[in-house]
Design goal:
- This protein is mostly helical and 203 residues long.
- The chain has a domain of 93 residues.
- Helix content is 73%, strand content 0%.
- It contains 9 helices and no strands.
- Helix 1 packs across helix 2.
- The chain is rod-shaped, with a radius of gyration of 42 Å.
- The mean pLDDT is 77.
């Protein structure tokens, strides 16, 4: 076989435009003992790649790769939308309200609470003063009861600053992809023989 034909086949091979038949012809020509020195690096690369195609991945490689990929897919946060649970809660609350309201009206109409009291004040001014004093008493009691809650307002102001901690977590989320990438690289290490072929190609 003419070496010029081999040179043309090599050019086509490196461009990726050879057919399977042409590749077989090229490989047979490169296996010859009387191969000129200029084709020796090409023989190492092409026949080396052919040998690499026959290498099987180590046992358990696929299982480790699947485990790593499933772990990466499962690490994403699950967003739960308020669905059925919220509907059941709302339906339960509505049912309780219906029972309470119907029970109240049932007992009221049955006369169990007794007759409705009549207006006890004949002087409207006196009724107004009595209502005002009662409302003032209720207001004082409410103010006394809510006084300890003023500390909660101060506590709330201090804890508002902590909301920025959540933004730190959001900033760290993209780095979890780096951890997954490292795991995939660890899983792919046994196939390092391709690195040798790449170095030969770069020479």
């Amino acid at each position: 076989m003419e070496w010029k034909v081999i040179k043309n086949l090599l050019e086509k091979y490196y461009k990726g435009s050879t057919s399977t038949e042409e590749e077989n012809i090229l490989k047979e020509a490169l296996r010859q003992d009387d191969l000129p020195g200029e084709f020796l690096p090409d023989r190492e690369v092409i026949l080396g790649l052919e040998a690499q195609q026959q290498v099987e991945p180590p046992e358990g490689f696929e299982a480790r790769l699947e485990k790593t990929l499933h772990k990466a897919a499962g690490s994403r946060p699950v967003i739960r939308l308020p669905g059925r649970r919220m509907i059941y809660t709302a339906a339960s609350a509505a049912a309780v309200m219906v029972v309470l309201v119907s029970g109240y009206f049932l007992l009221r109409t049955s006369g169990m609470f007794g007759p409705t009291p009549a207006d006890t004040f004949e002087d409207p001014q006196l009724a107004w003063e009595e209502t005002k004093s009662t409302l003032m008493l209720v207001s004082e009691m409410l103010n006394k009861g809510t006084a300890p809650l003023e500390n909660l307002t101060e506590w709330h102001e201090h804890t508002r600053e902590l909301r920025y901690v959540n933004t730190l977590n959001t900033g760290m989320e993209p780095l979890s992809a780096m951890n997954t990438l490292n795991e995939v690289q660890e899983t792919l290490k046994p196939i390092g023989k391709f690195e040798k072929v790449r170095k030969i190609l770069q020479q």
